[in-house]
Design goal:
By secondary structure, the protein is an all-alpha fold. The protein has three helices and no strands. The longest helix is centred in the N-terminal third of the chain and has 77 residues.
Amino acid sequence: MDDIKAALLPIQDAIKELSNQVQSFGTAFTQILERMDKSEAKITDNEDKIALLAKKTDSHEADIESMQTKIIDLEARSRRNNIIIRGMLESIQYNDLIPSIIQIFTTLFNDPKVAHQITIERSHRSLRESQA
């Protein structure tokens, strides 16, 4: 019987070693599963954040488009009272522009009272159009 026990000792040691390795493999596998679960949770969170950012971006783009439309409208409204006078002589000095404009309207309306009724906030020369 001692011979059988002695013969079984290496087999028992091999089974214990195999059992330890299986247990070690199970622990490593469990750790990998935990890491994978955490990674999947982070990916889901990031996907949710990306979706939220995409919605915000779409909303901001709509806001920007609306603001651009409003800016165009405001610029158009601010130009309503502007008058463009073409054909004024280049020889008229900058300081003489407003008196010259008042003189033009006084002459056009053939009424000297017009000079007192006209309010000119500012005047300037515009760039000449290219004649290409």
